[in-house]
Specification:
The protein is α/β, with parallel strands linked by helices. The chain has three domains: 128 residues, no CATH class; 96 residues, Elongation Factor Tu (Ef-tu), domain 3 (Beta Barrel), CATH 2.40.30; 126 residues, Nucleotide-binding domain of ferredoxin-NADP reductase (FNR) module (Rossmann fold). The chain contains nine helices and 15 strands. Strands 7-6-9-4-5-8 form a six-stranded antiparallel sheet, with helices on one face. It has a six-stranded parallel sheet with strand order 13-12-11-10-14-15, with helices on both faces. Strands 1-3-2 form a three-stranded antiparallel sheet. The longest helix is centred in the N-terminal third of the chain and has 16 residues. It is globular, with a radius of gyration of 26 Å. The N and C termini lie far apart (59 Å). One of its GO terms (biological process) is electron transport chain. This is cytochrome-b5 reductase. One of its GO terms (molecular function) is cytochrome-b5 reductase activity, acting on NADH. Belongs to the flavoprotein pyridine nucleotide cytochrome reductase family.
């Protein structure tokens, strides 16, 4: 057993640190840094530091093994150093050649000082306290480059915009939106709110799914937008606030493009392993072809069968349609949304006539004002 004693800690050049920690990646162990050290001052790069953090969780680590339940990824845009440690090993250090032989013994256990956790946590805290929380500004418009446009139907397209770096996040709280600025067919400025379908777990970019109407002023702008063009964005905006586990279940009443905030909220809830909230969505459209994000919604249903449910309603359904027909009714809400209770909330987002009708249905069914929210 080789013990590492921490004598001194110094955070080095934390202002230059640019790192993102993500899920589903694996780091290569760097125990040789410990085993080949001489007594004195040693600089640890960020890769080493985070490996040590992984190791210190269990206090012991079999060299050559990896913990499959803990995985991290590091931005390639990091500096060489994060902090320095002045260390001492007990017993006395072996010569470097013996240390490397020691490393190659697969079953050797290496004890890691608990202070490593504090070191990395301190560095991370100092870093995140100085790091910008997102790429957008609530007061000023910033421009983002369109890097991919995917036509989903004759009047619907998905637009992917690039963020400043591959590890940047948009910085949009759950259920909030951005304001997009463009020009209409007359060259006049137009500003309109949109909700991205991406979350801050989608790094390096954000996406908008836009339905373009023949006479829509902002629709004209999006029809003309091409890959390589820039769009001005400001945000975040919105009144919706949510903490994981805040309610037992959400009911969602969406119409047309009003699905985008619902999809964003549903994704955030379902993809959070610490949130067990159920989501019940009623999604209304005129025709089958008008349904937005159908593939993505079906993907969520398949992945979270016990927590996410969608009921589609069409005003002009095709033959052999098994979903709802007509307009969303009180009976549909009773059948497919959670009943009124202090620990549930009903969200609605659609055309103004639909929002007004849904508010009347919810009031009649006994949902209090505190149980309702309109985007």
């Amino acid at each position: 057993m080789v013990d590492v004693e921490i004598l001194d800690i110094e955070v080095v050049d934390i202002e230059r640190l640019d790192i993102e920690i993500l899920d589903n990646w694996t780091l290569v162990p760097v125990l040789e840094i410990i085993l080949s050290l001489e007594i004195g001052l040693v600089y640890f790069d960020i890769y080493s530091a985070l490996n040590l953090l992984l190791l210190s969780i269990s206090r012991h680590f079999s060299v050559g093994r990896r913990n499959p339940t803990i995985s991290l990824s590091i931005s390639r845009f990091v500096p060489d150093f994060v902090f320095s440690l002045q260390i001492r090993k007990t017993p006395k250090s072996s010569p470097p050649s013996q240390a490397m032989e020691f490393l190659e013994a697969k079953e050797v256990q290496v004890g890691i000082g608990v202070a490593i956790v504090a070191v990395v946590a301190t560095a991370a805290y100092l870093y995140t306290s100085k790091k910008s929380k997102g790429s957008i500004d609530p007061e000023n418009f910033k421009e983002f480059k369109l890097v991919k446009r995917t036509q989903l139907s004759h009047n619907v397209a998905k637009f992917r915009f690039e963020l400043p770096t591959p590890t940047s996040v948009l910085g949009l709280p759950i259920g909030q939106h951005i304001s997009c600025r463009g020009k209409d067919s007359q060259g006049e400025e137009v500003i309109k709110p949109y909700t991205p379908t991406t979350l801050d777990t989608d790094v390096g970019y954000f996406e908008l799914v836009i339905k373009m109407y023949p006479l829509g002023r902002m629709s004209h702008y999006f029809r003309e937008l091409r890959e390589g063009d820039y769009m001005a964005v400001r945000g975040p905006k919105g009144r919706f606030k949510y903490q994981p586990g805040e309610v037992r279940a959400f009911g969602m009443l969406a119409g047309g493009s009003g699905i985008t905030p619902m999809f964003q909220v549903a994704r955030a809830i379902l993809e959070n392993p610490k949130d067990n909230t159920q989501v019940h969505l009623i999604y209304a459209n005129v025709t089958y072809e008008d349904i937005l994000l159908k593939e993505e919604l079906e993907g969520l249903e398949a992945k979270y069968p016990g927590r996410f449910h969608v009921y589609y309603v069409l005003n002009q359904p095709p033959e052999e349609w098994t979903g709802g027909v007509g307009f969303v009714s009180k009976e549909m809400i009773q059948a497919h949304c959670p009943a009124p209770a202090p620990d549930i909330k009903i969200l609605r987002c659609g055309p103004p006539p639909m929002n007004k009708a849904m508010a009347g249905h919810l009031d009649a069914l006994g949902y209090s004002a505190e149980m309702q929210f309109q985007f």
